[in-house]
């Protein structure tokens, strides 16, 4: 979220304009038990939603950004937890996002410039509950929840190694521990982002700060270590704050709303994160440890794919073949940059040439396209 919101660079995309849930079409769709579609049109000063009431189940947001700035679209619970989102909607671009929603009250938000709360509409989802789904998908959700919790549990001691080094004033040890401390977070970042308030505290870059927001978290400390080359009282205090915020994340993971579509959409978000921040070198701009985050994002996306594959393979053999092949290809490419056996041991990104970055970018884009079809595939 904050890492993606921070980018003002080249573009990217989300959700397009289309069908409305109204009249006979909506009734026919509901009788068929299919996916409902709601169109969302975002501009610089408006957010038009085609339907404010729609039935529970699988809903596809089809969104068009007709404004002049990069935008973001979110489906939110009333308390601002994120059901699903798509960031970095380039001007004039469009795409689709399928989500599984239960009956209840929600909000749809369009955020021009990807800062602030944007323009919101209250919407209501009616019916008895969630979509009926393949039991294999319930198994996938349970396994992914366990995986997300394991990543959070494993992150805390790694972060403590990092923050202990900062509190001790040991610059070299803190630098060494920085990239490993981020791996579990980067693998499951969409889960952390779903809570709304944790990601801005822990993973925001300087150019992603909201007006009046205090800069805290990993990247504030990264700047101190690599650019400022000093650890002072403020940094030691921020280290303790990072411990506290990530402990909060660890405690909340078990309560996250996870569905098959959120797993699939989260996998795509992780690839978008690579495309917008890691490829450009914006994410870890002081330490140049971007490839460690890159690998973690890809690994987290592949975990979601592996868990959803038993259902996807029954419904779309070609998509399954494409995803298997392209995950393998990007994994092989990343292996060329490994410098050790650790999961954060990679070549410094400032040593990666323009041609090599283009090769990595092509691999990410080649994977992102079929991955964008996974959510709709597993629920069709």
Structure commentary:
- This protein is α+β, with helices and mostly antiparallel strands.
- The protein has two domains: 2-126, Cupredoxins -  blue copper proteins (Immunoglobulin-like); 135-379, M75 peptidase, HXXE motif (A middle domain of Talin 1).
- Helices cover 51% and strands 16% of the residues.
- The protein has helices at 2-5, 23-32, 135-167, 171-187, 189-193, 198-202, 218-228, 233-252, 260-278, 290-315, 317-335, 354-371, 374-379; strands spanning 36-42, 47-49, 53-55, 57-65, 71-76, 82-89, 94-101, 104-112, 119-126.
- Strands 3-9-8-5-6 form a five-stranded mixed β-sheet.
- A hairpin with a 4-residue loop joins strand 1 (36-42) and strand 2.
- It starts with a helix and ends with a helix.
- The model is unreliable at 1-34 (pLDDT under 50).
């Amino acid at each position: 979220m904050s890492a993606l919101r921070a980018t003002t660079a080249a573009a990217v995309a989300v959700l397009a304009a289309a069908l409305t849930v109204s009249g006979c079409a909506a009734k026919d769709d509901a009788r068929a038990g299919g996916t409902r579609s709601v169109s969302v049109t975002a501009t610089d000063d408006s957010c038009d939603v085609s339907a404010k009431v729609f039935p529970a189940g699988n809903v596809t947001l089809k969104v068009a950004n007709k404004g002049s700035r990069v935008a973001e679209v979110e489906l939110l619970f009333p308390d601002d937890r994120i059901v699903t989102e798509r960031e970095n909607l380039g001007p004039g671009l469009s795409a689709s996002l399928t989500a599984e929603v239960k009956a209840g009250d929600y909000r749809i938000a369009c955020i021009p410039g990807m800062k602030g709360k944007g323009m919101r509409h209250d919407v209501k989802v009616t019916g008895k509950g969630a979509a009926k789904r393949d039991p294999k998908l319930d198994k996938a959700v349970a396994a992914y929840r366990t995986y997300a919790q394991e990543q959070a549990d494993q992150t805390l001691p790694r972060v403590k190694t990092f923050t202990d080094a900062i509190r001790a004033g040991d610059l070299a040890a803190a630098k060494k521990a920085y990239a490993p401390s981020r791996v579990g977070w980067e693998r499951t970042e969409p889960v952390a982002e779903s809570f709304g308030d944790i990601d801005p505290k822990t993973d925001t870059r300087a150019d992603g700060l909201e007006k009046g927001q205090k800069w805290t978290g990993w990247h504030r400390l990264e700047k101190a270590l690599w650019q400022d080359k000093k650890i002072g009282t403020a940094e030691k205090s921020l280290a303790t704050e990072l411990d506290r915020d990530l402990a909060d994340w660890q405690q909340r993971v078990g309560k996250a709303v996870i569905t098959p579509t959120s797993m699939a959409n989260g996998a795509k978000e992780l690839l978008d994160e690579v495309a917008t921040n890691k490829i450009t070198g914006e994410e870890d701009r002081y330490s140049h440890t971007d490839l460690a985050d890159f690998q973690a994002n890809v690994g987290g996306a592949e975990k979601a794919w592996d868990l959803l594959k038993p259902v996807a393979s029954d419904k779309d053999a070609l998509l399954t073949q494409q995803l298997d092949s392209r995950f393998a290809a990007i994994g092989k490419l990343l292996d060329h940059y490994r410098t050790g056996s650790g999961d954060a041991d990679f070549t410094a990104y400032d040593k990666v040439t323009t041609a090599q970055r283009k090769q990595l970018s092509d691999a990410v884009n080649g994977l992102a396209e079929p991955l964008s079809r996974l959510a709709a595939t597993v629920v069709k």
